[in-house]
Specification:
Length: 227
């Protein structure tokens, strides 16, 4: 008869321990700053660069003003932008022009706009204008925090894959595809970070209690935060 109360006590203590562990893990990642984890930042940067290389995307860090130069309404302004074309012939033309520009820049050892001035052609175009698809991200985000920067980065990548898969799409679709990318390519413990969790760990991408514990253990093994 005394065995049952003992089992109940052990189960209760175990549940309390698990609850406290879960709370501790949640609190740890609530104020998690990527800036303090350069190895993880490098890992995320390598992953995003690999995706962009495979997809032929070029990423440019711009000021908020440069990204929104043609937008007058505040509600239309953004901290990131994905620019593309679905016209295959236009894309081929751009690629051909870009190839010729790169040859000229190599030969004259000058940027395209300066070459234009040398030959008397007053052009405001730069080599960047011929590059598609491309992503523009506000460099100001890095001042707010690298987590915000990479959340925006994945959102814009989400636009790219949404265009490939479904064509016309919404911001919610871009977030959904971003969530797929985050779950597929980033270490699972990135979804413990509050900003990533808020953006991409809801619904079908939400980590279960077990997955969170496993993700935290992987984080301890791979990142060794005590060092």
């Amino acid at each position: 008869m005394e065995v049952i109360p003992l089992i109940v006590t052990i189960m209760f203590i175990t549940l309390v321990f698990l609850a406290l562990s879960y709370l501790k893990v949640s609190m740890y990642f609530l104020d998690f700053k990527l800036e303090n984890h350069p190895a993880l930042v490098k890992k995320i940067e390598n992953i995003t660069q690999d995706i962009c290389k495979r997809e032929g995307i070029v990423v440019f860090d711009k000021t908020f003003e440069e990204i929104n130069v043609n937008r007058t309404k505040e509600e239309d302004k953004a901290v990131g932008m994905y620019i593309y074309t679905t016209d295959g012939e236009y894309q081929k033309t751009l690629n051909r022009c870009l190839g010729e520009i790169e040859l000229m820049e190599k030969e004259y050892r000058l940027p395209y706009n300066k070459i234009c001035k040398l030959v008397g052609h007053d052009s405001t175009l730069t080599k960047e204008d011929f590059i598609l698809p491309k992503i523009l991200i506000s460099e100001n985000l890095k001042k707010l925090g690298l987590t915000s920067y990479y959340c925006t980065y994945f959102h814009e990548l989400g636009h790219h894959f949404a265009v490939k898969e479904i064509g016309v799409h919404t911001e919610a679709d871009a977030d959904r595809y971003a969530g797929i990318l985050v779950r597929k390519y980033l270490p699972s413990y990135c979804l413990l970070i509050h900003s990533f969790s808020y953006s991409y760990a809801s619904g079908e991408y939400k980590l279960s209690f077990k997955e969170k514990i496993v993700a935290f253990v992987i984080y301890l093994i791979e990142e060794k935060p005590w060092k």
